[in-house]
Amino acid sequence: MVTPVAEYDDTEVEVVTAVDLSHLQEAARTIARLPADERLRHVRAERWIG
């Protein structure tokens, strides 16, 4: 379930979405909570799968 939450500033309104991550393992939740640029860096990182 996604619940919109508004954070107010004097000049702007930023909408932050609270997301239920209970379906993910804790390690994945940690990554999912990172800012978008850091999540993308993590996803694009080279990994050895073998």
Give me the strand/helix succession: EEHH
Shape: flat
Distance N terminus to C terminus? 35 Å
Rounded mean pLDDT score: 81
Find the count of extended strands (DSSP E, 2+ residues): 2
Would you write up a description of this structure?
The chain is 32% helix and 28% strand. It has helices at 26-32, 36-44; strands at 2-8, 13-19. A hairpin with a 4-residue loop joins strand 1 and strand 2. It is of the alpha+beta class. The chain has a two-stranded antiparallel ribbon. It has one domain (2-44). It is flat and about 50 Å long. The longest helix has 9 residues, at 36-44. It has 2 helices and 2 strands.
Keywords:
50 residues; alpha+beta; two-stranded antiparallel sheet; 2 helices; 2 strands; 32% helix; 28% strand
Quick overview of this protein structure:
Helices cover 32% and strands 28% of the residues. It is built from two helices and two strands.
